[in-house]
Design brief:
This protein is mostly beta strands and 71 residues long. It has 1 helix and 4 strands. It has a 4-stranded antiparallel sheet with strand order 2-1-3-4, with helices on one face.
């Protein structure tokens, strides 16, 4: 089995009392293409900002190519 290039487990992001992402789980295999779609304000950009370390996650873990980037 191939290690996911991106793995997200229980991701939570909140700004004060406002919860933007709550319990996000995701695995993306090498070479796989995905799309994030949803209404304005649904957390798509926040998810990407957490993935590229522009936002610190409130809870959960993110692995990029097997490396835990949340700690």
């Amino acid at each position: 089995m191939t290690t996911p290039i991106i793995k997200i487990d229980g991701l939570r992001k909140q700004f004060g009392d406002h919860v933007v992402l709550d319990g996000i789980d995701l695995e993306v295999a090498p070479g796989e293409v995905i799309a994030a779609i949803g209404a304005s304000g649904s957390g798509k950009s926040t998810l990407l900002r957490c993935l590229n370390l522009l936002e610190q996650v409130s809870d959960g873990q993110i692995w990029l190519d097997g490396l835990d980037i949340t700690h």
